[in-house]
Amino acid sequence: xxxxxxxxxxxxxxxxxxxxxxxxxxxxxxxxxxxxxxxxxxxxxxxxxxxxxxxxxxxxxxxxxxxxxxxxxxxxxxxxxxxxxxxxxxxxxxxxxxxxxxxxxxxxxxxxxxxxxxxxxxxxxxxxxxxxxxxxxxxxxxxxxxxxxxxxxxxxxxxxxxxxxxxxxxxxxxxxxxxxxxxxxxxxxxxxxxxxxxxxxxxxxxxxxxxxxxxxxxxxxxxxxxxxxxxxxxxxxxxxxxxxxxxxxxxxxxxxxxxxxxxxxxxxxxxxxxxxxxxxxxxxxxxxxxxxxxxxxxxxxxxxxxxxxxxxxxxxxxxxxxxxxxxxxxxxxxxxxxxxxxxxxxxxxxxxxxxxxxxxxxxxxxxxxxxxxxxxxxxxxxxxxxxxxxxxxxxxxxxxxxxxxxxxxxxxxxxxxxxxxxxxxxxxxxxxxxxxxxxxxxxxxxxxxxxxxxxxxxxxxxxxxxxxxxxxxxxxxxx
Length: 479
Hints:
By secondary structure, the protein is α+β, with helices and mostly antiparallel strands. It has one domain. Helices cover about 45% and strands about 15% of the residues. The chain has helices at about 30-40, 60-65, 75-80, 85-90, 95-100, 145-165, 170-190, 195-200, 205-210, 220-230, 235-240, 265-280, 285-290, 355-365, 405-420, 425-435, 440-465, and strands at about 110, 120-125, 130-135, 140-145, 210-215, 215, 240-245, 250, 260, 290-300, 310-320, 325-330, 335, 340, 375, 380-390, 395. The chain has a 6-stranded antiparallel β-sheet. Strand 5 and strand 6 form a beta hairpin. The protein is globular and about 70 Å long. It comes from Lentilactobacillus kisonensis DSM 19906 = JCM 15041.
């Protein structure tokens, strides 16, 4: 079925329903910074240091998410979560979000990642085929308080650092350095750069490779990634993931239950919905996609936290015989579990979740995948977003880092997080609040250290639940 059937060249992205008005404010930078400084009296740094234990059931929280997932994939999901406390932390962001909603927060809104752990930064290609490094996961992205992202980053640094064998004192220093980098970059963004300069900042890897952090070269691992990521394009996907079937057709290989072909009914359904997706990309991409037809579709699960959601790979073949592989990912409602809504002063009920994700991604990333789009399945009331699969996407292998590399990497992640937040005009209020005082770093590090014990307790409770089959409940099936 041609992907351009009944296409409209209208750019539907002009009609995004996700409301960004909460981060727009009619004040000067100076006024906003002063608002942030005044906010220190209302929420002093010391209040951010205390972790308030929260009464909730970790098993019920996980079950609430998993009842929406594909049941046959849950054993593999549990296996991935059980690898380590850090893996568990990565895959259960709903728990920390609920806990954060009960903590003291400044409630200064910016567009946040919502899941800014240290493993959610990675490499991808720009439209000019340059290799970029930036935030790369936005399933939980929304408008929220800046410190939610910073706290999640810090806890992830602590957990990953412990896995690397970094001692507690050194780990705290790495976390403090990350907060101080965040403060420094926010100050530079609003003290030294114009709005256009903030918008045009570069995340190109070549720039990172040419720079130095504390007079030390960036990790050699970056150069290895530069070499391997440049080879991860659609044609490489075709070589790795496809085969020729008995009819002589190019199709995806199966690897059940992780990778399986969809039913003819689902094939037809997805093909029809890609017409809706095509209406959410720019006209030039619409014309590009008009040269392709759909050759094959499989359900293909990836990640840790999103493992078990409805994710698909679509093999497209162009009129010149070249290929493109799109990834379709289910967009779940953000941060809710066991009947308790993780609400903030900035929560929205109306937007389609696919729209929410790509809107926030386009704000936070300097350059986003031009094929990024979304659609909504009215019949099942499920949201999806669409992007290129692979396309020079790669992540740093944290387990291969020594302590110096890890510290540098943590600071780069904090730098990119600050620059992403700085795209929101309200981040000038954050700049006024955080300033350059070391008290902020000490307070946030103290909170992260205390919260890490909650993560370990949750992880132990999860392992116990696996042993006693408490998580083997009835859940939804892929229909």
